[in-house]
Amino acid sequence: MELRRYSLINNKRKLKTAVILAALTAFLSGCGADSAQTTTEANMNNSLTGVKVNASVRKTGQYPENFVLTFENDIEGKELSASQFSMKGKAGMWGSNDTRDFSCDFESAEIKGNTLTLTPHEFPEKFFYVKNYEVTCSDNPEFGFTQKDVTAVETPIADDFETVSYKGDASFDYRLYHPSEENNMPIVIVFHGFGDTSNLLTYRTAVEWAEPENQAVRPCYVLAPVIGDSSYFQVSSRGKVLDSVKDIVDTMISEGKVDSSRVYVMGNSFGGLSTLEICEKYPEFFAAAMALCPATTYAQTAAANLPKMAEVPIWFAHAEHDNTIPVTASREAVDLLNSSGAKEVKYTEYTDDQMNAAGADGSPDSTYSYHHVELAVMEDEAYMEWLFSHSR
Questions:
Q1: Quick one: 71 and 185 in the same domain?
Q2: Is 255 left (phi over 0), alpha (psi -120 to 50) or beta?
Q3: Is the alpha carbon torsion for 195, 223, 251, 288 positive or negative?
């Protein structure tokens, strides 16, 4: 009887243990399912919170260096490669409302925490010309995005310029870079070409002066007026802008910011023409000037009045086969100044090979780039050294 009673008790214990183990297993399985479901839902709901474009101003203009996508949750563990991504979009054209299609692939896709950084391979357009675009991911559509998702575009150096609105006889905006030391400093006025109102992003004519490497040896203010096409093309309205630019600098001189003996001016194309015209109007104001492919073919008066600026040291530069402003514009200006007994006139003429070496044939608008002699000039420190070697 005792043996039978022991057996019954033992069987009850085993049954109870089995029930407890079954319940525990079911509980743990349920937790695992809930955890897996939560993880899946998190992945499904891991929405894109923003896209930042990191850009730079290269020789031929502004280009995107990378696109940084940020998500709500970590995406580490995802298997993504650059080959899965592609971009298609439309870009504008200089001087036209037309657009053209473009496409771009990517050379790297890097995941870190909740960010994905996509680096484009040879982006084909100046970024400020881009009207819209879409990036798709073939294997993971949730990683695609459009231009509407972009929350910030950062362009170092160009972003350091302050934008100021000038109201007077002429109304226009101008970009102003402040050096670290703001008292009694030189200033460089940079006039852009006709139509190049994105004057900090088109070429490096203005931003080069603000680069840390240049500011370390030639600290200065950089003033870059933004001149609309209608104001630029008419002599009277252009003249009002030039007078206003001088007023802006005069004010900075009176405030003790600018050294009146070290005011410099330069520009390309219509900016080169404006350089000549402002020097003709105020020859006593400028320590030295640089005229790059000046558009004197659009203003015969400016060409005829060159002797008025004979006391201003000037350096001309022009590409031999400039197909917008003929090289004869600079050659004739140099000849006239020399025959007028000008104080100092320098001239550099660039061959096609020299322009191509500077990047003219690598620009999206390469057929037009022989006109942009600044591609060569702004990469040659000799021009900057020469300009800053002068004072009044």
A1: no
A2: alpha
A3: negative
Q: Give the type of residue at 255.
A: E
DSSP 293: S
Instruction: Mark whether 149 and 165 lie in a shared domain.
Output: no
Question: How would DSSP label each residue in 131-182?
Answer: EEEEEEESS-GGG-EEGGGEEEEE-TTGGGSEEEEE-SSS-EEEEEEPPSS-
Q: 91, 125, 154: which is the final residue of a domain?
A: 154
CB within 8 Å of 229: residues ≥ 6 apart: 194, 195, 197
Q: What φ, ψ does residue 341 adopt, rounded to 5°?
A: 75, 35
Indicate the residue type of 114: N
Q: In the 8-state DSSP scheme, what is residue 3?
A: H
What's the rounded Cα separation, in Å, for the pair 138 and 12?
60
Is residue 70 in some structural domain?
yes
- Could you give the CA distance from residue 366 to residue 110 in angstroms, rounded to a whole number? 32
- Amino acid at residue number 304: A
In this predicted structure, what is the pLDDT of residue 49? 96
pLDDT in tens, 184-219: 999 999 999 998 999 999 999 999 999 999 999 999
Three-state DSSP at 214 gives helix
CB 353 within 8 A of CB 181: no
Q: Is 308 helix (H, G, I), strand (E, B) or coil?
A: helix
Q: Would you state the pLDDT for residue 230? A: 83
Residues 6+ apart with CB under 8 A from 126: 60, 61, 62, 63, 91, 201, 202, 364
The token pair that represents 272 in the structure block: 């080169």
Number of residues assigned to the chain: 392
Report d(CA 30, CA 346) in Å as an integer: 84
* Token pair listed for 209: 């002066």
At 119, which CATH number? 2.60.40.2180
Task: Please state the φ and ψ torsions of residue 169, each to the nearest 5 degrees.
Answer: -60, -30
- The verdict on residue 24 lying in a domain is no
The pLDDT tens digits of the residues spanning 24-70 come to 444 444 444 443 343 334 444 679 999 999 999 998 899 999 999 99
Domain interval for residue 98: 48-154
The two counts, helices (H) then strands (E), for the chain are 11, 16
